[in-house]
Amino acid sequence: MESQVLTPHVYWAQRHRELYLRVELSDVQNPAISITENVLHFKAQGHGAKGDNVYEFHLEFLELVKPEPIYKLTQRQVNITVQKKVSQWWERLTKQEKRPLFLAPDFDRWLDESDAEMELRAKEEERLNKLRLESEGSPETLANLRKGYLFMYNLVQFLGFSWIFVNLTVRFCILGKESFYDTFHTVADMMYFCQMLAAVETINAAIGVTSSPLLPSLIQLLGRNFILFIVIGTMEEMQNKAVVFFVFYLWSIGEIIRYPFYMLTCVDMDWKVVTWLRYTVWIPIYPLGCLAEAVSVIQSIPIFNETGRFSFTLPYPVKIKVRFSFFLQIYLIMIFLGLYINFRHLYKQRRRRYGQKKKKVT
């Protein structure tokens, strides 16, 4: 005896872009679901209100839909999703005004038009937020990019100052004091590169990429570049003096210790020896470096006076000649003011790191 063809109970709901159909059939096998000429055709073997039979129905939609229905089988029902061709709200599901007897609203998923619009806006906002996060990157991704960028910057600076330090050390071991007098011509290009790149460090502090205070970084950048580019770089007579060796050598000693410490910080590592050197070596090196800079300025004063470079005469009616050596003398005072500011900053850093030793009470 052939199975009787019956119509299952079908429940529907809609959103602006989709239609949802829930077919009350369990244990469905081999469903045939298709859309042709805007009509949904359904036929399947399953267990429904009339027992285990073949159930089928046809629905002609009110408006145009896409001809690719998506369905999902569960143990108790068949869920069908149909995409509307135009995003809009329908007043009913079928083209015929009278609702078929087997069709009813799915109140579990039912929303009125205003609620559906709110849901649609929420989904759209969620989608836009997701796109924005993908374009901006997650906080973890940004943190990793920041660490990678800082690691590479510190690595480049370390390699540059290491090259200067090794070059000067090897030449001193081979040539002795004779190596002092051509230091500038030997390593100037690399020193120019490293000191120009050091501007990135100050920019990082200014825009918050690093937590370093801006003032100490700016003082060191401007001070060193004034010595390198103006005092030494513009006067050939200064480039052959021994003091250039001590300026460059003391600068490089401090940096080949400082930059490895920053590199290890970027990868969340703490080597006690490197950390101790970072917070200790500056104590003799920094004052000696400032002293070497001061000597270079003092030695340059008579040279600038003799050549008249960067000197100028004030316009009429004053007509006073202002020698560049006047600014160099002011800069000498600023060197030791900068020494005080940076020394105080570095001392505070060391005290925070290692704390103050308590005095024993006798």
UniProtKB/TrEMBL annotation:
Q: Does the keyword Protein biosynthesis apply?
A: no
Q: Which reaction does it catalyse?
A: a very-long-chain (3R)-3-hydroxyacyl-CoA = a very-long-chain (2E)-enoyl-CoA + H2O; (3R)-hydroxyhexadecanoyl-CoA = (2E)-hexadecenoyl-CoA + H2O
User: What Gene Ontology molecular-function terms does this entry list?
Assistant: enzyme binding; very-long-chain (3R)-3-hydroxyacyl-CoA dehydratase activity
User: Which is a Gene Ontology cellular component entry for this protein?
Assistant: endoplasmic reticulum membrane
Q: Which Gene3D superfamilies match?
A: 2.60.40.790
Underlying gene? HACD3
Q: What is this protein called?
A: Very-long-chain (3R)-3-hydroxyacyl-CoA dehydratase
Membrane topology summary: Multi-pass membrane protein
